[in-house]
Amino acid sequence: MNMVNVKINGVEYSVPAGITVLEACKYAKIDIPTLCYLKDINEIGACRLCLVEVTGARGMVAACVYPVADGMEIQTNTPKIRAARKTNLELVLSAHEKKCLSCIRSTNCELQKLAQEYKADEDHFVYGEKGAKVSLDTSSPSIIRDNNKCILCRRCVAACNKLQGIGAIGATNRGYDTEIAPSFEKVLADTSCINCGQCIVACPVGALYEKDDTQKVLDAIADPTKHVAICCAPSVRTAIGECFGYEPGTDAQGKMVAALKALGFDGVYDMNFTADLTIMEEATEFLSRVKNGGKLPLITSCSPGWVKYCEHYFPEMTENLSTCKSPQQMFGAIYKSYFAEKLGLDPKDIVFVSAIPCTAKKFEVGRDGQSNDGMANVDVAVTTRELGRMIEQAGIDFKALDDAEFDMPIEIGSGAGAIFGATGGVMEAALRTAAEVLEGKSFEKVDYEEVRGTEGIKFAAYKLGGVEVKVAVASGTANAAKLLKGVQDGTYDVQFIEIMACPGGCVNGGGQPIQPAVVRNNIDLRAVRASVLYNADAKLLTYRKSHENPIVKKVYEEFLGEPNSHKAHELLHTHYVKRGL
Ligand code: SF4
Ligand code: SF4
Ligand code: SF4
To answer: Is the pTM of this model over 0.70?
Structure first.
């Protein structure tokens, strides 16, 4: 690697040639303030918060886009720099609806934090007409856009374009009138937005947020005629601790369960159970398609953002999608039928809630084909962030809680179910089951390392029961598009594909706690959160294969018959539509 010598605030460092001043400052353990910069996603030098002084430049330069040069001297914290940053902050604030008291991002807002640090005067500049309030876009089932709070940093635009390859939102109009919105004055619901929420977790302020469904949950809990049950997706436990000050990568399962019980839920369950059920259905579907000449490659369907993406952008491939409902929907379907009977409940009295890392799940609960006997499988889907807010507002001291266990009779989920939250996890879980079905014996080795990791597209091939099975895994819909185009033009020959809409999988979902750029730019949240799931799989859980989960076995014995049975199809499978653009 070519290195150059630079001086940062008078101290010499040797740093790789070609990097930016911002990156070089990390060698000096200095974080330069930013608002628009997100590593590898949005590097546009627009907000001018990262101004620094360097030798050889006229005036101050934006550190996020200015490359280092040998012999360069860099100053990051002179009075001139601090004054310029403060002025730029005050300009941003002049066009911003400053309602910190009630803002959803208060205390987790990058603008608020910088304004405090720089003692910026929010009323220093008056921006005339720009103060006029614009209406909120509440059309989406998942996301609210509030342009009164938008600071035009374009992080959301870059996330939607680069990570997801969608471009549902962009900068419209020019200069003073610029705003971020869908084109042609559409509302978000009328675009090909897949509700993934990657724009929300990229946004530094309160201009984008999830549709809050917590009141529906609290009302149901307060209604004595209702039985309110909640199931928790694997990824929620990997991140909910972040809402209460724990480091990313903290497994907070025990405290999460205790907090939900304290909130008053009548049943608190582990969605790993229906991740296992999904594997039983999906692995059987795959083997049946291989045997009977069905549509291949089979593509997983547990990520509703991905499913909607497929419907919009690859409608000709919707037959490739597995017909399996997602784990949250399977849970609601089985809870309001088999378990309702076991627990002596009238399904009409059940309010079934899912706790999920994903904003697209809010869209999924209302989709056609996601109900049985006239009842929605899932009544309300709340994100990890909403769960965190409910716990906080109830005055529950999360950190002080003793760990609690999931409730009977659905307290067991396997390690295969746990790793569903990470990219490659569904594929690995399916392979664990498919291998044993095809080989007709049990294997000690259950780790399929080739499909693990945060790489956007992964390929692997395995010999199972004398058959070569070629698989692929993609996360982030921009990667999904690359993979599918390769499948369509014959570049890639695969029989089974896992796709998750969010880069890195559900652990990095759009409903997870929002970490500021200073964290996102310095650690790989996807890998750190996923490590919680792989650790649970390897060390904490009794069963590591979905088909060994004793509750899954019992549900088939007593109720469903066998995977892909008529009853299983009725309750656990769905259909898709071709949406186009
Ligand atoms: S976005 Fe930030 S600065 Fe603006 S009102 Fe909300 S908390 Fe305050
Ligand atoms: S939710 Fe996803 S698809 Fe929709 S605007 Fe945001 S990033 Fe784009
Ligand atoms: S909505 Fe948020 S992320 Fe998008 S441009 Fe506005 S402030 Fe930036």
So the answer is: yes
Question: What's the whole-number average pLDDT of the chain?
Answer: 95
Which CATH fold would you assign to the domain 215-572? Rossmann fold (3.40.50)
* CA gap 143, 353 in Å, rounded: 19
Q: Scanning the structure block, which residue is given the tokens 């066998």?
A: 562
For residue 14 the two structure tokens come to 């040797």
Q: For residue range 478-507, what is the model confidence (pLDDT) as tens digits?
A: 999 999 999 999 999 999 999 999 999 999
Q: How far is the CA of 236 from the centre of ligand 3 (A)?
A: 25
205 Cβ closer than 6 Å to some ligand 1 atom: yes
Query: For the structural domain made of 3-77, what CATH number should be given?
Result: 3.10.20.740
CATH architecture of 124-210: 2-Layer Sandwich (3.30)
Per-residue pLDDT of 527-542, as tens digits, reads: 999 999 999 999 888 8
Nearest to 350 by CA among 224, 228, 215: 228
Nearest CA to 237 out of 206, 260, 204, 208 is that of 260
- Our answer on whether the CB atom of 106 is closer than 6 Å to any ligand 1 atom is yes
Of 547, 559, 199, which Cα lies nearest the Cα of 359?
199
Domain ranges of the chain: 3-77, 124-210, 215-572
Cβ partners under 8 Å of residue 411, min gap 6 = 269, 270, 405, 551
DSSP 418: H
Burial annotation 59-69 (CB, 10 A radius, 16+ → b, else e): ebbbbbebebb
375: part of which helix (H) or strand (E)?
Answer: strand 375-376
Distance 250 CA to ligand 3 centre (A): 29
